[in-house]
Amino acid sequence: MASAGATSSEHDLLDLDDELSVEARTTRDAVCAYATTELGPRIADWYERGTLPRDVAKELGALGLFGMQLNGYGCPGLSADAYGVTCRELEAVDSGLRSLVSVQGCLAMFAIHRYGSEDQRRAWLPAMATGEALGCFGLTEPEAGSDPGSMRTFARRDGADWVLSGTKTWINNGAIADVAVIWARADDGILGFLVPTDAPGFTAREITRKLSLRASNTATIVLDDVRVPSPALLPGARGLKCVLSCLNEARFGIVWGVVGAARSCYTSALDYVGSREQFGRPLASYQLSQRKLADMAIAVTHAGMTALRLTALKQAGRLTPVRISLGKLANARSAIEVARIARGMLGANGVTLDYPVMRHMANLEAVLTVEGTEEVHTLTIGHAVTGLSAFR
């Protein structure tokens, strides 16, 4: 049986990891060791049962993976490539693990760090960095997925308080979070709020019967006249631009993460055809097998190159939304194609949880959609190259 996602330099055909900083390589080795030995052996069971134990968050927090790219308040302020390889090594095991780190650090914590008050940062970020407290990001609604500007959740003033009403859905960590970053429409535009999940009128119902991202918690949140005091307002969070800045942080993690999922599928197929014999020869010796392996190796390598280039742009302050759209769309497409090829190479064994391939393939179907659908990223790129918007 192939491993759940161990890394190996022999599969890095262009030695791309040579471009990583020393900090990123140290982080890579620590995360890979933990993910392979502690998470890999348990992930198939969690996926099958449709759960991710809450204790995993504390383990990830103890490693310093929550908000690792942020500075202060218990966050280590590591480099962009260190965060990237963390996403890669976690998603090599399962997309749900990368999603947990992404939602916590790049959506909830980033929103508080970037747009919150000093009191809000001190109240939440240290506990979130350790995994003692979990956050979620309440943006998507039943009737407003790719069009957040059409959100119906409303915030109205009532004396010194705000009262929030509406529904959010497909919210990762929603049913296990301690605090929710809720985006709502008000008379003066879209605002962000910090809402404790034990507030009266706040309910979260876990979404079950999922066939993708099963090793994660996803929920529908209902805000039934939830009353919060004025200090719950994120003072710097006004307008869709703030929402999209958070999403772009998470998309950057996906650009790296799917490289890990693709690598896991590729190495699983390589191991399998190298040991499986048909017609008296290893499957790996046949031309069609080698063509497929070569195609997968190229796809994984190109996705890794894209992740590195976007990282360099990010560290130089030149990572624009359209560049993130290009990377997320291209790498997610490449990863799911690698997963599909690998699944076929494993034959019937490829659809079992004894191998990670089908699990990755199902997860990547959701990853294609989250943080911007294929269509949205395609039209973002189309707008950039033509100068003409096709959204309206």
Annotation field: number of helices = 10
Q: What is the fold-level CATH name, i.e. the topology of the largest domain?
A: Butyryl-CoA Dehydrogenase, subunit A, domain 3
Percentage beta strand: 15-25%
Our measurement of the CA-to-CA distance between the termini, rounded to an integer number of angstroms, reads 50 Å
CATH superfamily of the largest domain: Butyryl-CoA Dehydrogenase, subunit A, domain 3
- What's the story with the biggest beta sheet? 4 strands, mixed
The order of strands across the largest sheet is 3-6-7-10
Q: What's the alpha carbon Rg, rounded to whole Å?
A: 21 Å
Please estimate the helix content.
40-55%
Overall CATH architecture of the largest domain: Up-down Bundle
pLDDT below 50 for ≥5 consecutive residues: which ranges?
1-8
